[in-house]
Amino acid sequence: MYTRLQQNLERHVNLNPAEFKQFRQALTVKTYKKYTHLLQSGEVCKYTYFVNQGVLRLYDIDEKGYEKVALFAREEWWVSDVYSFHSQKPGTYFLQTLEDTEVLQLSKYQMEELLLDIPKLERFWRILHINAFVAQQERTMQMVAKTAESRYLEFIAKFPEAELRIAQKHIASYLGITPEFLSKMKSKLKP
Question: Does a structural domain hold residue 93?
């Protein structure tokens, strides 16, 4: 159950067995059915989640009622409404499972305790947040400077099993296009 977590941590820091055990014990294992909301807009994000199994989407709803997918989180990803989690103020995002999902959740209080007890985790969270910031900048530039076709091809290259796991309407929302346009584009791209 904790193999993916350990691999995720080891990419950035080396915890000794006692530190990893302490980190693991701070987490709570939760399972959710497909399409369960872990967070609603207007709520305070109480947890950051490590995806052990499944796919989630972080999204908001614009003033016209359209869902705008900010990101998909799959196995070995951490996901939360970062602003709300760290500020402990109500956020604007929804977080929803797209498959039956198992997560390891960590509260803000537990995170702060771990950071005091295991200083190496400061480095771990810093690296994760820097990587998330860089990815957000890349996504912003992609939305501004690239065609829908380029955005789609890059998305599928990074997440090849996406179309088997994520509804076309959610992929279209992530790409900033309609499901109909995505369908037409995919037809044109077929050899």
Answer: yes
Contact 61, 41 (CB under 8 A): yes
Catalogue the E-assigned strands of the chain: 28-32, 37-39, 47-53, 56-61, 67-73, 78-79, 94-97, 101-107
Rg over alpha carbons for the chain, rounded to the nearest Å, is 18
Span 64-117, pLDDT tens digits: 999 999 999 999 999 999 999 999 999 999 999 999 999 999 999 999 999 999
Whether 134 maps to a domain, the answer reads no
Q: For the whole model, what pTM was predicted?
A: 0.92
Residues in Cβ contact with 22 at an 8 Å cutoff, skipping those fewer than 6 apart: 114, 117, 118
Q: What's the average model confidence in pLDDT over 4-10?
A: 94
Q: Give the residue numbers spanning the domain of 103.
A: 3-120
Residue 47: per-residue pLDDT: 98
For 110-121, b/e burial (b = at least 16 CB within 10 A) is bbeebeeebebb
